[in-house]
Design goal:
Length: 431
């Protein structure tokens, strides 16, 4: 049932009232340099903040064996974060509404050279409508919105009339294992909402992602005799060339995949890192490069990985050098499948009403050729998995920033969504 206009207006006004505090909270989140493996402090901060609001708290480590045994688990490596997962749990007085997961990730990608930023990567500087900083958009503004959408109800003396889990995970930028761990821990709900930076829109479909590393060996000699050696870096370029052909082949298959058929280039291969050689005057005997490639929803990660491996192995057999010096292939991160939010769910309808009440326009949907944690809940819990969030710029780039006016509007829509989806009841008295 749609919210009464009086309650709707009161919730919107409550978000406005708390927005200065929400900005300060978001800036604090941005101040943590929470790159992979260094998320402990920001997770501790999140634990303390949620605990202070009276939620039941759970803080737990990744279960490597359980993740590796699950078909949605990504390969573990020595780089895997050891930071904990944090979950805050709201229990109502009486369970009359529909339960909800509000999730965010607080790991961020490396900022790169600080000299190439105009604003400090972890400064949270505000210029006009924009807050700058690594993770400001992806997705610390969303993490704050999860907390402050609930705070807006509390300010009115209300709380959700259903169980709500506020989940803060890590490893979203590298494996997706953090979200999977909440699933393996047993947290379930009737819907999930993840406020990633999505330009005030709802994601209809998202890609899966595969990470892999290729190691090429060469034969070192002095450059005056380089014809007698084998340059591993030059050889790596040949492998990359064949992978570019595979990328093109996968893009020709887009017509077979709804929501992707009209995208110009839905499958992107990124050579994200390359290292090789030891000395400028020696023919390099080693080269290692790391790759990321997208896969369509409905394509099994295992099948995509097999095709990548077979493509490189078949190429090597036909290459004069590689036929006796095969490249080594390691799958070392994302091994995740894509997902689709099928139209027609009650959750989408409720979010649509909330969005229209705030933006005075219908909720738009779109496809993103990127990884999203919603895949865990869509594929393995089979619940409506809503990814919906604010406008941002330059995520994963220099001077990443998020629109504060957009964050405010998204938080209003989220608070309205929570109130209608979960229902409301008077705020419980402190124990």
């Amino acid at each position: 049932m749609a919210l009464a206009p009086e309650l709707q207006n009161a919730i919107i006004a409550s978000v406005e009232k708390g927005f200065d505090d929400q900005i300060a909270y978001t800036r604090k989140l941005v101040s943590f340099a929470s790159v992979r493996g260094a998320e402990h402090a920001v997770q501790d901060f999140t634990y303390r903040e949620l605990s202070s609001r009276g939620y039941v708290m759970d803080r737990f480590a990744m279960d490597r064996a359980a993740i590796e045994a699950h078909p949605g688990g990504s390969p573990w490596s020595e780089h895997h974060s050891k930071a904990p997962i944090v979950v805050a749990i709201h229990h109502p007085r009486k369970e009359t509404g529909r339960s909800l997961i509000l999730q965010s990730h607080l790991d961020v990608v490396p900022p790169g050279p600080e000299a190439m930023w105009q604003h400090k990567p972890y400064g949270g500087e505000i210029v006009g409508d924009w807050m700058f900083g690594r993770g400001a958009g992806d997705m610390k503004a969303g993490a704050a919105a999860n907390v402050f959408a609930l705070d807006a109800l509390r300010r009115l003396g209300l709380q959700p009339a259903a169980t709500v889990y506020v989940q803060s995970v890590v490893e979203e930028e590298s494996t997706g294992n953090g979200a999977l761990m909440t699933h393996l821990r047993g947290y379930k709900a009737d819907a999930v909402l993840i406020p990633e930076p999505e330009d005030n829109k709802l994601v209809r479909a998202n890609a899966g992602v595969i990470w892999f590393q290729v190691e090429v060996r060469g034969v070192p000699v002095h450059v005056r005799e380089m014809g007698q050696g084998a340059n591993a870096i030059d050889a790596a370029y040949r492998v990359i060339g064949r992978l570019r052909q595979l990328e093109a082949e996968w893009n020709t298959r887009k017509a077979q995949h709804p929501h992707f058929e009209n995208e110009a280039h839905p499958i992107n291969l990124n050579i994200g890192k390359i290292e090789g050689g030891d000395w400028a005057s020696s023919v390099p005997c080693w080269c290692v490069f790391d790759c990321r490639i997208a896969i369509y929803p409905g394509v099994r990660a295992a099948d995509a990985a097999r095709e990548i491996r077979e493509t490189i192995e078949n190429f090597a057999r036909g290459d004069a050098y590689f036929s006796n010096n095969a490249p080594r292939i390691t799958f070392n991160g994302f091994h995740t499948e894509g997902s689709v939010l099928e139209p027609g769910s009650d959750a989408e309808a409720v979010l649509g009403r909330a969005h229209e009440a705030v933006f005075a326009a219908p909720l738009e949907t779109f496809m993103t050729p990127a990884y999203l944690d919603t895949r865990v809940y869509a594929l393995y819990d089979q619940i409506p998995s809503l990814c919906y969030g604010p406008i941002s710029k330059n995520i994963h780039g220099f001077d990443e920033c998020v629109s504060l006016s957009s964050v405010k509007s998204i938080t209003k829509a989220m608070a309205l969504f929570i109130a209608e989806w979960c229902g409301t009841e008077p705020l419980a008295e402190p124990a």
